Each structure stands twice: as structure tokens, then as C-alpha cells.
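User: Structure with adenosine-5'-diphosphate, C-alpha cells only please.
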Amino acid sequence: MTAPTPKPPATSAAPTAAVQLTAVSRRYGTGGHAVTALDDVSLTFPRGTFTAVMGPSGSGKSTLLQCAAGLDRPTSGSVRVGGTELTGLSERGLTLLRRDRVGFVFQDFNLLPSLTAEQNVALPLRLAGRRVPGARVREVLRQVGLGERARHRPAQLSGGQQQRVALARALVTRPDVLFGDEPTGALDSRTGREVLAVLRGMVDREGQTVIMVTHDPVAAAHADRVVFLVDGHPTGHLTAADADTIAHRMTTLTTTPESPRTTEVATPC
Ligand code: ADP
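Assistant:
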């Protein structure tokens, strides 16, 4: 059994930031074939807030998520998660950070079909040799509205319920931040709204920080803030916007031939 990684106190420089990116760039390849997936991105994601990240295909959304979560290393710049600077961390340090301090949900639920909901929630910690308190597993299943379904297997649950099991699995370690990569992309609009309502509730009631990539303006409207990326750079944001306003902004983004390299959200906010 290994002990959980202790959470260092947040630094005085950014006491309320769950995630902070400063001048982050990510380039793939070299020379004439180099692609700049992220270009000098500075963004602050305050604790207890819900941010949606939107932009055209290829604008750098996945790369942003992967760099912010310690799944990928930026070419330059700094990423801090919960006060920890990721730049100098070893591979082992990054693995521990991803295990203990970061949660992920993807479009596919990735549940093991032979395990019950509670066994799926506990599995990642068990695989890491960690003790999994049953009370914590039940608590987090209750938080996602599945307290009565703990013994159900994935096939006995709807798509929305399966995604809520995946949410519970991502939240069981009380991560500093929950990342979602199109978490409602495989769901119909009604079950998608159920999952979004759970995410919103985790932010409002539990103070969870959520960062979600989505192409769906209705999903993004559940967020406090929508950050728009074009060509690897933030080009602006909307706060507490409705789906129509977000959809309109997306249309403007994709039809703008040359994206302005503004710093509207480039300064920590
Ligand atoms: P999005 O998620 O917005 O579709 P990505 O972050 O996947 O955008 O990609 C941003 C840019 O970086 C694209 O031009 C993509 O082709 C490029 N890219 C992403 N990953 C790699 C990689 N592993 N190797 C080379 N280029 C990549």
C-alpha cells in the first residue's frame, strides 16, 4: 500500500488557482514540418469554477487539456496544478499527480463491464495499491445521483448513468481538477444534460474545479466561462453566456480568416 501524495499548500502567488498556465507553447516536430499546437497560452482556472474550452478542430483544445493535466509536456512555459509546478516533475511525479490530483472523463465511459458501479469507481485506486474506503465510494456515487445503483453493472445502466459512474471514478480521489474531453459527446441531449447538471452541482456544492473541452454550445452554457482557442491561442472568452451567444461566437471564430492574437484571456484572471 502506498500513501496518498500529500497535497502541498497553494502558493501565495496563486492561492485560488486550481490550474495555471503561463506562456505555455507546445510544438510538434521540427524545421519546416513543425506544428505549433499551443502558442504562448496563459490562462488561470480558479478553484471551484467550471470552464469550457471551445474552438475549431485543430485549434489546440486536446493539447491544452493534456498539458494542463500532466499527460503531455509543453515545449516551453509553466503549468501549475494545485500549487505544484509540473515542469520539473519526473515521470514518476507526473504519474502520481495524474493518479491523485487530477480526474478525467472522456467521451467513452471506459467502464469494465464485469464490475459493478462501485467496483469500477474503486478500481483505479485498487490497481495503484491504495486502500479504498467503501464509505468514500458510496459518498461519491451518491453525489452523482447513483447511490441506489452501486451494485449495478454497466449493462444495467443507461449511457448517462454510465458516464456518471465514470465521473464518480474520476472524483473519488478528490482531485484538484476534473478534466472532461467531450464528456457528453456520446450521449443524447437529455442524458447529456443529466451529466452536465451533475458537473455543475459538483462545482456549486463541492467546490470542484472543472475544465471541459466541448464543441456543443448547450454543454458549454453550463460553464461559468467559455474560453475560445484559434490556432493554438486564446482569442477571447464569454462569462455566464447562453447557448445562442456561444454558438454565435463559434460561427464568428470559424469564419474569421486570420485570428487576432489578442490577450483578452492571456493575462491571469
Ligand atoms: P483540437 O483538439 O482542437 O482538435 P489538437 O490539440 O488535437 O486540436 O491539435 C492541435 C494541432 O496540433 C493540430 O494541428 C494537430 O494536427 C497538431 N497535433 C496534435 N497532436 C500532434 C502530434 N502528436 N504530432 C503532430 N502534430 C500534432
